[in-house]
């Protein structure tokens, strides 16, 4: 048996498992997204099957179109989940951009500090990982207590802000909690990238008279770019699926409703329409991930070429 044939023998079971675990739910969701939700026929009062829906489930979300009691297509009224789609997209993207930028910036600083040799470094690394190790539900409840009207935050700053009720304070509260929890994960990934940078490169730069800032700008950042982009990719995909943190902290506050929360709310009303929303969410995450992977691949290859030329 050839090497390639033996490789397929070992790979085939994994591919079959992935097809069942990943492929089937995706295909099933796509099929359901083109079906109407079952319910009561308003004219007869009888329970009827949904039947084919065409693209109506998608236009319901993308164009915010609903069907009234007369069967006419109208704009979704305020309060309907369909009218909240683009607002949820905006909130999701806001959380993603702000949290990923903050976590990458702070995580980079933490990684640089943890990468240095000093007494107690192992204890510091273990302590830094504690927020990431805490379950998200516990983190959300902890920060909810802190941001209550009579909580720690208002007492420290002497303010009277409804952090989990008002729109922008609630968004800030969710961002603060997410940054606190997930920055250690970014720092850990970036630290792994820092540790593979050859020390002799820094020694050569010191001999040439490069300052600490010059070494960081011209050596650390270019060589760290692949690891940094991997960390950004993982965190971006995770942030686009954010659900439990805002759901627990701010509960039903529309100002913090993400696209994942909208999917869960819609499942309670109609699984087929929720499937269409799930497909849209999947395409959004896939598009962003594809873009980041292409950028990551280009930069990773370029950095490796520069490293080979430098050596």
Structural class: mainly alpha
Radius of gyration: 25 Å
Give the strand tally.
4
The overall pLDDT average reads 85
Overall outline:
globular
Q: What percentage of amino acids are in beta strands?
A: under 5%
Low-confidence runs: 298-305
Which key terms come to mind for this protein?
single chain, 311 residues, mainly alpha, two-stranded antiparallel sheet, 4 strands
Structure description:
- The protein has 311 residues and is mostly helical.
- Helix content is 70%, strand content 3%.
- The protein is built from 13 helices and four strands.
- It has helices at 3-33, 56-62, 85-114, 121-128, 130-133, 136-146, 152-157, 167-194, 199-207, 212-240, 244-249, 259-267, 271-310, and strands spanning 39-40, 47-48, 65-67, 73-75.
- Helix 6 packs across helix 8 (167-194).
- The longest helix has 40 residues, at 271-310.
- The two termini are 41 Å apart.
Brief account:
This protein is mainly alpha-helical. The protein has helices spanning about 5-35, 55-60, 85-115, 120-130, 130-135, 135-145, 150-155, 165-195, 200-205, 210-240, 245-250, 260-265, 270-310; strands at about 40, 45-50, 65, 75.
SSE arrangement:
Blueprint: H1 3-33, E1 39-40, E2 47-48, H2 56-62, E3 65-67, E4 73-75, H3 85-114, H4 121-128, H5 130-133, H6 136-146, H7 152-157, H8 167-194, H9 199-207, H10 212-240, H11 244-249, H12 259-267, H13 271-310
């Amino acid at each position: 048996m050839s090497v390639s044939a033996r490789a397929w023998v070992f790979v085939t079971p994994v591919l079959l498992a992935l097809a069942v675990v990943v492929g089937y739910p995706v295909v099933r969701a796509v099929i359901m997204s083109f079906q109407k939700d079952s319910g009561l026929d308003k004219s007869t009062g009888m329970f009827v099957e949904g039947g084919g829906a065409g693209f109506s489930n998608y236009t319901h979300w993308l164009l915010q179109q609903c069907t009234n009691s007369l069967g006419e297509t109208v704009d979704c009224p305020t309060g309907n989940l369909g009218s909240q789609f683009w607002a949820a997209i905006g909130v999701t993207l806001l959380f993603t951009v702000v949290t990923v930028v903050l976590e990458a910036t702070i995580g980079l600083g933490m990684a640089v500090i943890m990468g240095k040799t000093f007494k107690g470094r192992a204890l510091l690394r273990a302590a830094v990982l504690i927020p990431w190790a805490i379950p998200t539900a516990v983190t959300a409840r902890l920060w909810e207590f802190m941001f209550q009207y009579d909580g720690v935050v208002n007492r420290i700053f002497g303010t009277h802000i409804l952090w989990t009720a008002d729109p922008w304070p609630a968004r800030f509260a969710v961002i603060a909690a997410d940054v606190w929890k997930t920055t250690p994960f970014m720092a850990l990934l970036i630290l792994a990238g820092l540790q593979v940078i050859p020390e002799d490169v820094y020694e050569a730069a010191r001999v040439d008279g490069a300052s600490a800032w010059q070494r960081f700008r011209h050596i650390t950042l270019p060589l760290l770019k692949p690891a940094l982009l991997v960390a950004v990719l993982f965190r971006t995909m995770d942030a686009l699926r954010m659900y439990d943190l805002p759901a627990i902290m701010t509960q039903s506050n529309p100002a913090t409703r993400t696209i994942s929360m909208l999917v869960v709310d819609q499942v309670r009303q109609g699984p087929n329409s929720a499937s269409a929303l799930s497909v849209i969410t999947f395409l959004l995450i896939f598009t962003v991930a594809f873009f980041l992977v292409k950028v990551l691949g280009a930069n990773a290859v370029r950095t490796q070429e520069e490293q080979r030329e430098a050596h």
